[in-house]
Amino acid sequence: MSSLLTTENPVFVSYALCVTVLSIKMSFIAWNTVYHMVNSGGKGIRNPEDLIAGPCNPEPHPDDLKPYPPTERQRRMMGHDLENNVPFFAVGLIYVLVQAGPEWPIQSYTATKLFHHLVYWTGQRHEMRATVWTVTNSVFLYMCYLVLKVLLEKRGE
Question: Where exactly are the transmembrane stretches of this chain (predicted)?
Answer without folding.
Answer: 12-34, 82-100, 130-152
